[in-house]
């Protein structure tokens, strides 16, 4: 498949935004139960929510560049019963709304108690909004990943690993960003967040490498024989039916050499996992905002390469009809 | 229920592209607007087509067969492109099973083309919406036309009658009979899409010449050749001349 940069930015930006929001709320939950010193609501939660919102909005904006008719984008929510894309279109603005309210409640100090736990802890409105945002974040990871995982004949995508990867990689980049952000906004929780960023990056590396191994062993189920229905081991294409290019020769091919795809694979393994892990491990004990910010930037670039490879690696069965390009 | 479809006889197709050009002609002058044709006489022509004919060579020289392979939307009975559409622009008609795109609802996200294993959908580069074969839905129900012309443009254009059109759910239709009697098959059956369009395989025309066909068994003189010329006095067929 041709990696479209609008989709690369969409999936990586909203992934980081979701991860950042989950990190913010994780800190709030730990602080609620007294496991962490409570950070300043204004500087940490409100500004963090603005950052998460900016990432989500950036992703949403990028998605419009993927559309041929962006002015009709509002129609895309219609078929949520069958289409994961429609579900994503609904959940993403929903999450943005939850993050906006979560940040606003912290900014304005609007924290009316909604319930009281038996231990006497008050559950206030920000916790309820945080829970809603958490559910929506995970729902969005599921929707985004299922857009790809639900296509059975794109064998490289049709796997539960796709959902796991989107969740873990979005979470890893979000927690790395949260760690860097907290170095300025709430230095007390930086080590905690960097620790989780390391755990998520390690888990993400494991599951992404697992999917690389899986895809390397993948055997195509469709062959030129099933595509044409001719049972003969030797079939050679003599003509694609036209001399110029077409949608079919552009949309489904990445147009780079196998060497370039391999290079990008190793690039993302190094940039998305190895380098950020080293920077996180180095920056966490020192709570160094600059090092942690570098970790996020490097990891984000690595995830762009990762997403590029995710698309480039998927080989569409329609390519069988274009043997000269495949 | 009706499921309209094409049946394409690979044994007869000569790869002349008449179906491609007639399809383009009909659908570019239809009510849905012109089908894009970018730089048709330029260096790198491009555009949207609903139907393409490809050519494959099967086997190794000298035992090769050239197979011309027309491919358009297969109007799957379980179309994977329809449920993924976020807007409902892509739909399958209940009454005749044609898979269509509502060009006014399509947002051009291309997701349906990813979901089609056959590569049957093409984005129109000018209108920026997804387009595909409509089975000439604006023609096959046109009461203004004589009944014989209420067929897709490609079917009418085919000089060798390699393309049949009809309802594959009606067991007595020409297409159902062709599928049944000539081993019609579906493309990529492994994905369970149940394409409505079927292909009829190449059939090799062979003849066996037996020994007794080379020698005349009813030859009383055991001589092959001209029979002895009858005398002129023998009666002839027309009573005028003898041979």
- Portion in helices of chain B: 10-25%
Please list the strands of the largest sheet of chain B in the order they lie side by side.
10-1-11
Computed Rg of chain A: 22 Å
Q: Give the domain tally of chain A.
A: 1
Largest interface pair: A-B, 57 and 61 residues
Which geometry of chain A do the CA atoms define?
elongated
Average residue pLDDT of chain B: 91
CATH class of chain B: Alpha Beta
Q: Please state the oligomeric state of the protein chains shown.
A: heterodimer
Number of domains of chain B: 1
* Strand content bin of chain A: under 5%
Q: Write the H/E string of chain B, N to C.
A: EHEEEEHEEHEEHHEHEH
Q: Tell me the CATH superfamily of chain A.
A: Formate dehydrogenase/DMSO reductase domain
Distance between the termini of chain A: 11 Å
Number of strands of chain A: 3
* Pattern of helices and strands of chain A: HHHEEHHHHEHHH
Average pLDDT reading of chain A: 95
Question: What does the largest sheet of chain A look like?
Answer: 2 strands, antiparallel
Low-confidence spans of chain A: none
Category from helices, strands and their pairing of chain A: mainly alpha
Number of strands of chain B: 11
